[in-house]
Design a protein that fits this description.
single chain; 659 residues; alpha/beta; TIM Barrel; six-stranded antiparallel beta sheet; 21% strand; globular; Gal_mutarotase_sf_dom
């Protein structure tokens, strides 16, 4: 809580914070620099070169230097954005040292104080330990934690620890601590049902430690601010307030809310057409067919294999005439090959991420040796966007950004070196090491892709799917939960994963239905389709070398279950569309845990096999030996009416409507 000695300072030209506190001068030359002190692994001084570009010139330690932790102190705070939103910093100097926000849709909103007489209900403490800023919140027993973005494991996060470091995590499990996206965000539901949001606004690697009941401990290199939202009366109000900072989800085209069919890979245009026609012949609803990386010529982005996909425009026209849209993959790794026009153009325009030696970094991915666009730089983003614009002319309806953590083969870290150099725009943080921009690389790629689709046709809503992301990436792209497994554990976990992303500001997500790796059984696939048809993003996808995973691949009964599940989705499509319009315009979530119906009811806070879509409650069985008809649901208080579409089946979820 705020200490009794705290007094609020209303925003003025000379003071941002209550409890204004100064550190001794961190560097005697700092007053003569054009920019404030900022950090790398600690506080760092930056300056501008003769050309005005921000450059990292010195690191500075802010800990004692003997490995011990400084004594905890209350952070200073100031109101920003709107009533109930506060920014906390360790000191005035730390506030000046913080990098610009990449998560905020308008970074200035984090810097500009607002007049307010409200004081925070909870004030974190900070300490400094081995060049790390440690921030701690303490709450009363009975507090529940959610969010933390794309994470495996349980819905209620007490007892867990997450590291925000975007990682290619094929075959992850419930204990994997770093997945493909980073959301340094915790949704705190108090015993009263009131809810608070906590954002550590840093792009750097960040530890979120929830292992002790009622305690949030955030550890990351300084200096970074903490932004709190609330407490407000409902979790929805917190997420709406968060959206005023980081933005709402883009409004998807209606077709993107239908069923998507994907495979690594449909190896020819002929096979793609066969898949599309089989959906129509079997009267299984579907709107989209996806092309994985094998459509390319030797995995070169923006190319098509001349033998297997000789006429992509004709294929797209055929699909369009049959009621399908076509989505094609684009990775960040560009084959290093003189004579390849994309590589030559990028080299001419000097858009590649640099190694520590100042030369373009070379890393191996699918095409072999590759270079990587530096999406932190506006020139590189514009270059990429124009390539996307031209690519769209082939009849491309949507784009799938994969491997953009960025993933790199044959290295232990699975990514590029942390000392690679990005020539970032000043408003993003300027010239910095990859360790600073790693977690936002995928989001900035998705932004560039989205902007390229807008350039191609301003009258069509773009659709981009990204594997890597950061809090705020919902402004540009949908996401999926990565390379999951065809197991009952992953079916169960997929519900919580979709919900956690929604509780972290990303409502448009879903898993690879049926599991990406491994072979699903008919029962598992049918059950997963039943649940997956109710997720915000609904796509079946499977790995090369596995059995076919189309809805008709598992026998007649499973096919009928899948048909019924997808017919349910299409009958509810107006409801999905309305929920997304509300999410786009207000920041409200689409799919939520059932405790959103009654945040005070502690019975509901750990239920993992049910969720809400507005006033619709979906209750599913994720156990192999138990059908939905055998469940004994725990429902929120009030009137909940069970209904169906005359399609009841043990492998389909039970549906309830709030009365």
């Amino acid at each position: 809580m705020v200490s009794s000695s705290s007094s609020l300072t209303i925003a003025s030209s000379h003071s941002f914070f209550s409890n204004d506190r100064s550190l001794p001068s961190l560097n005697p030359i700092a007053p003569s620099l054009a920019l404030p002190a900022i950090r790398s692994s600690a506080l760092a001084v930056t300056s501008r070169s003769s050309k005005g570009r921000r450059c990292l010139i010195r690191r500075m330690s802010v800990s004692k230097g003997d490995g011990s932790e400084t004594a905890p102190s209350d952070m200073i705070f100031g109101p920003i954005l709107e009533d109930g939103v506060f920014r906390f910093d360790c000191s005035v100097e730390h506030r000046k040292a913080a990098f610009p926000s990449v998560s905020f849709k308008n970074s200035k909103d984090r810097e500009v104080p607002i007049p307010s007489h409200i004081v925070p209900a909870f004030t974190p403490t900070y300490s400094l330990l081995e060049e790390q800023q440690v921030v701690t919140f303490q709450f009363s027993p009975g507090t529940s934690f959610y969010g933390t973005g794309e994470v495996g494991g349980q819905l209620e996060r007490t007892g867990k620890r997450v590291f925000t470091w975007n990682t290619d995590a094929w075959g992850y499990g419930p204990g994997t601590t770093s997945l493909y996206q980073s959301h340094p965000w915790v949704l705190v539901v108090l015993p009263t049902g009131e809810t608070l949001g906590v954002l550590a606004d840093t792009t750097r690697k960040c530890e979120i430690d929830l292992r002790k009941e009622g305690v949030i401990r955030i550890i990351s290199p300084p200096s970074y601010p903490i932004i709190t939202f609330g407490p407000f009366s409902t979790p929805t109000a917190v997420l709406q307030s968060l959206s005023h900072a980081v933005g709402t989800v883009f409004m998807p085209p209606k077709w993107a809310l239908g069923y998507h069919q994907c495979r690594w890979s449909y190896m020819s245009g002929k096979r793609v057409a066969e898949i599309a026609q089989t959906f129509r012949d079997k009267k299984i609803p579907s709107d989209v067919i996806w092309m994985d990386i094998d459509y390319m010529d030797g995995f070169r982005c923006f190319t098509f294999d001349k033998e297997r996909f000789p006429d992509p425009s004709a294929l797209a026209k055929h699909l369009h005439n049959n009621g399908f849209k076509a989505i094609w993959m684009l990775d960040p790794g560009i084959k290093q090959e003189e004579g390849f026009d994309v590589y030559d153009s990028g080299s001419k325009n000097n858009v590649w991420v640099k190694g520590a030696d100042g030369e373009p970094f070379i890393g191996e991915v699918w095409p072999g040796p590759c270079v990587f666009p530096d999406y932190t730089n506006s020139k590189a983003r514009s270059w990429w966007a124009n390539l996307v614009k031209d690519f769209i002319s082939n009849g491309v309806d949507g784009i799938w950004n994969d491997m953009n953590e960025p993933a790199v083969f044959k290295v232990v870290t699975k990514t590029m070196p942390e000392n690679n150099i990005h020539r970032g725009d000043d408003e993003l943080g300027g010239v910095q090491y990859h360790s600073h921009y790693h977690n936002v690389y995928g989001m900035l790629m998705a932004r560039s892709t989205y902007e390229g689709m807008e350039l191609a046709d301003k009258n069509k809503r773009p659709f981009v799917l990204t594997r890597a992301g950061f809090i705020g990436s919902q402004r540009y792209a949908a996401t999926w939960t990565g390379d999951n497994l065809s197991t009952w554990e992953h079916l169960h976990m997929s519900i919580s994963m979709v919900l956690q992303l929604g509780l972290s500001g990303q409502p448009l997500s879903g898993p690879d239905i049926g599991g990406f790796a491994g072979n699903a059984t008919p029962r598992l696939f049918g059950r997963w389709m039943g649940v997956g048809a109710m997720f915000p993003f609904c796509r079946g996808h499977s790995e090369a070398g596995t059995d076919d995973h189309e809805p008709w691949s598992f026998g007649e009964e499973c096919e009928e279950v899948c048909r019924a599940a997808l017919k349910r989705r299409y009958q509810l499509l107006p409801h999905f569309y309305t929920l997304f319009y509300i999410a786009h315009t207000t920041g409200a979530p689409v799919a939520t845990p059932i405790f959103f119906a009654d945040p005070k009811d502690s019975r509901l806070r750990t239920i993992e096999n049910a969720f809400l879509l507005g006033s619709l409650l979906i209750h599913a069985s994720t156990l192999s030996n138990q059908g939905s008809h055998e469940l004994q649901p725990i429902l929120p208080r009030g009137t909940w009416l069970r209904f169906d579409f005359e399609d009841s089946h043990p492998d389909l979820p039970t549906l309830y409507l709030q009365g």
